[in-house]
Amino acid sequence: MYLSNYFLPILKNNPSEAQIKSHQLMLRVGMIKQSSSGIYSWLPMGFKIMKKIENIVREEQNKIGAQELLMPTIQSAEIWKESGRYNDYGDEMLRIKDRQGREMLYGPTNEELITEIFRSAIKSYKLLPQLLYHIQWKFRDELRPRFGIMRCREFLMKDAYSFDLNDDDAVLSYNKMFLAYLKTFQRLELSAIPMAADTGPIGGNLSHEFVILAESGESKIFADKRIFDIKTEKYSLTNVSLKNMRNEFEKYYAVTDDKFNNKDFESKVLKNNRLITKGIEVGHIFYFGDKYSKALKASVDLQDGKKTDVKMGSYGIGVSRLVGAIIEAKFNNNIMKWPYSISPFDVAVIPMINKNDDTNLIKAENIYNKLKKNNIDVLLDDTDENISSKLKKFDLIGVPYQIILGKNSEQDLLEFKEIDKEAKQLSINEIIKILTTKKK
Ligand code: ATP
Ligand code: MG
Predict the structure, then answer these.
(1) Ligand 1 — pocket residues by CB below 6 A?
(2) C-alpha torsion angle, residues 208, 210, 214, 218 (rounded to 10)
(3) Which of 81, 120, 317, 435 could form a disulfide with 158 if both were Cys (CB 3.0 to 4.6 A apart)?
């Protein structure tokens, strides 16, 4: 992509309406555009990053055997009346009437709809367990939409639902998801702490929020710092291993404000290990047993001819919120550095261009073509801005690697730079090698 063709409407200054850095940067660089309160369009760069995040989320769901499907955004009010949540959900639910006067709604979550899909298809215990998910837009008419796409009204969520025969199997599904979440956030270079949480309007008895540390976060968190030292690589998807993993996490105190109890905190966590800070919730998992299956009559036949209500859990990740959360975690000293796995481009080529001498531009185009041939996604700044404003602009765009062609770039060696590190002199082949290895 040539920058002169790229739809990246960069603003000169930080927009005054944004209070936190992710919102500022996303508007400044032109990743999103507000269309009305809490509703945004995703412009090419923002959209590309979100899609990459979505794909990592998807891969980790598939790895634990979850199956992807797609439910609609608009739902009928009927099933919500069956579960009893139509009234309970309150003003956060956007209610709509169609031309026949039927009550519809824009889904804020999908427990009812997935249960209805499940109950019409699965009648026997032999077809359990089932683990289903989709990645779809949600609408919640938040009282105070704020912080850009972090707390907005229309947002992209991955929501998964598990259906099991009994509590033990259901906890196994829950634990698989727990590990999948840790792996997803690791691939996004985030350290997310699982925190014991209240179950809120979704109801139930077992729940964890996955929270990343950030000053701008809305959740207050109280934790034992040692929770950060847990290594998840040693755990696998077997029942025993997953139980050990949960036990290891549960050894350490880690809660958000709704579960906080000062007495417990002070007795369980030594002074030096206490961490009191703020965080952003990026995921939330629940086990709620037969809460919905009972109300919606989702039962299966057992071997002895009896019936039992299935045990369910639900598991959300804020895919669009993650874009902002990653900026909150990675934007430092006015430099944004996207994790390579979700970066909008693999590398940027930034030549100093003289109006009456196009040697550097030609050289840059040759490099660009070579990189492209090697499947490297490259952004070439072919504009005639001066080099220092180009570099400032790239500090905001956040492509993690740069090839800079300055005045004195030598014949064969190129200035190759990781955005927040010292430059190195390397040949184009060495650069290609580094970038292709990174991609794997
Ligand atoms: P919050 O406490 O932030 O309102 P929640 O408990 O209502 O979140 P869930 O119902 O568990 O959220 O939804 C799953 C995930 O969807 C959350 O962990 C979050 O990442 C994301 N999410 C929820 N509400 C919003 C929103 N208004 N804007 C963007 N993302 C959201
Ligand atoms: Mg909420």
Answers:
(1) 109, 140, 142, 151-152, 155, 157, 200, 281-284, 316, 318, 321
(2) -50
(3) 317
Amino acid at 369: N
Count CA atoms within 13 Å of residue 98 on its CB side.
10
319-330 and 44-63 are packed helices; what angle lies between their axes, rounded to 10 degrees? 110
Residue nearest to atom 31 of ligand 1 (CA): 318
Ligand 1: which residue has its CA nearest to atom 5? Answer: 284
Domain of 365 in residue numbering reads as 345-439
Tokens of 85: 């949540």
Q: What is the pLDDT of residue 199?
A: 62
Domain C-terminal end among 312, 335, 358 = 335
Cα–ligand 1 centroid distance for 233 (angstroms): 27
Residues 430 and 284 in one domain: no
Residues 380, 326 share a domain: no
Pocket residue to mutate for ligand 1, from 39, 133, 137, 157, most atoms within 8 A of Cβ: 157
Residue 8, C-beta contacts closer than 8 angstroms, at least 6 positions apart: 29, 30, 43, 44, 45, 397
C-alpha 94 – ligand 1 centre gap (Å): 16
Kindly report the pTM of this predicted structure: 0.96
Q: How far apart are CA 310 and CA 370, in angstroms?
A: 56
Span 45-78, pLDDT tens digits:
999 999 999 999 999 999 999 999 999 999 999 9
Q: Where are the alpha helices (DSSP H) in 220-358?
A: 239-250, 262-268, 291-295, 319-330
Token pair of 360, please?
């550097």
